[in-house]
Design a protein that fits this description.
Oligomer: single chain
CATH topology of the domain at 9-209 and 348-389: Rossmann fold
Number of helices: 16
Shape: elongated
Distance between the termini: 32 Å
Structural class: alpha/beta
Order of helices and strands: EHEEEHEHEHHEHHEHHEEHHHEHHEEHH
Radius of gyration: 25 Å
Strand order of the largest sheet: 5-2-1-6-7-8
Helix content: 25-40%
């Protein structure tokens, strides 16, 4: 059975992480996502090691995941013939997504105004660092810059260390989620009214919104948040504690009964009734840290197995995907490779009762579906051959 977005055609001009992550979500949900890659400028993530082969040729493991379920064509937009191909594809699409600096698509004649004039039902979505408007719109930017400008890094980390190197791309993924949500909202509006529109999503906007609880409280109080000053960033017992074997245990209990359960399990009854933010937070954290450091992570898992304390082991990625819960939810996805090995991917994070979602094939080499997509879009075989010989396609 097809996914809930079956029948939705998405033309994806995006690259790197944010746009492709958003369109991977749409592909996971059943949309026909056609990735339009450049014949001249490779996406850095397409060449990021390690390289695997899921049956259609060598591809980065990152691209095999990020481009999952999509079809791929390679097109030279610098060539007028390539731009005409893109216009013909967009005329048949439901959604166009692009991730260039503002103004780039207009130079190609592929901006929202022109494509919407040709296809008024089109949802045209632009993702950029700062958005399509404002004094910074033309500036380039990446994830860490958006986090720096959003305020998030000013209260992340410790007072001694400052902002830590982050292991995940928060602004990229936040804007990707916003993009997928906004596109679907615009599609619903289009289906009700027949009216397409231009959707504008910015990484900085997403990062600002993801200040979340801390941001709302700080703005309400008229104060800037600082490191180790509130419940969730080191100003309480909430946090991670080192174990005897160099691993970590995360205590995420905010409610009094979770604090009591964890304190008693840790052998710190004096902390049981002080709540998650006792009068002497540094002293209480030090006592908990010493208690946690007295056992290995495996010993803590055994101690906490029958205790509801909102305390969990800090797992490696492989450990996380190997847990029974992740396997039961289909979040460990195993793909056979051409050499007989197995590629493990994170699975699809959606579950539907009426339209079950099945993860698509791993992303393949750039341009693997060029002829197939163009044939479906009304291009004659001779026309495709001519464009290929001219270097417009790959």
């Amino acid at each position: 059975m097809p996914g809930p977005l079956a029948g939705l055609t998405v033309l994806d001009f995006s690259r790197l992480l944010p746009g492709p992550f958003a369109t991977r979500l749409l592909a996971d949900l059943g949309a026909d996502v056609i990735r339009v890659a450049s014949t001249r400028h490779p996406d850095l993530l397409d060449v990021l090691p390690p390289v695997v082969d899921a049956g259609r040729g060598p591809v980065s493991a990152v691209s095999a995941w990020l481009q999952r379920g999509k079809r791929s064509i390679a097109l030279a937009l610098a060539d007028p013939r390539g731009r005409e191909v893109a216009r013909r594809l967009a005329a048949r699409a439901d959604v166009v997504i692009e991730q260039f600096k503002p103004g780039t698509m207009a130079r190609f004649g592929l901006d929202a105004t022109r494509l919407l004039a040709a296809n008024p039902r089109l949802v045209y979505a632009s993702l950029s660092a700062f958005g399509q408007t404002g004094p910074d719109a033309a500036r380039p930017g990446h994830d860490l810059g958006a986090l720096a400008l959003s305020g998030l890094l000013s209260y992340t980390g410790t007072r001694a260390s400052g902002p830590p190197p982050l292991g995940l791309q928060i602004a990229d993924l936040a804007s990707a989620s916003n993009l997928a949500l906004a596109v679907l909202a615009a599609v619903i509006h289009r289906d009700r009214t027949g009216q397409g529109q231009h959707v504008d999503v910015a990484m900085l906007d997403a990062a600002l919104d993801w200040n979340g609880l801390t941001g709302a409280a700080a703005l309400g109080a008229g104060l800037d948040p600082g490191r180790e000053e509130h419940l969730l960033n080191g100003g309480s017992l909430y946090g991670c504690y080192a174990t005897a074997d160099g691993r970590w245990l995360a205590f995420a209990g905010l409610e009094p009964h979770f604090v009591r359960a964890f304190a008693m399990a840790a052998g710190c009854p004096e902390l049981a009734d002080g709540g998650v933010a006792p009068a002497d937070v540094p002293g209480a954290r030090a006592r908990l840290a010493a208690a946690v450091a007295a056992r290995t992570l495996a010993e803590w898992e055994e101690v906490l197995a029958e205790v509801e304390a909102c305390a969990e082991p800090v797992l490696t990625l492989h450990e996380a995907l190997d847990r029974p819960q992740a396997r039961a939810r289909g979040m460990r996805l195993e793909r056979p490779l051409a050499d007989g090995a197995t590629l493990v991917q994170v699975g699809v994070p959606f579950h539907f009762s009426a339209t079950p979602v099945v993860a698509g094939a791993p992303g393949g080499p750039v341009g693997a579906h060029t002829r197939e997509v163009l044939r479906e879009s009304g291009f004659a075989a001779a026309e495709i051959d001519e464009l290929g010989q001219a270097g417009v396609l790959a």
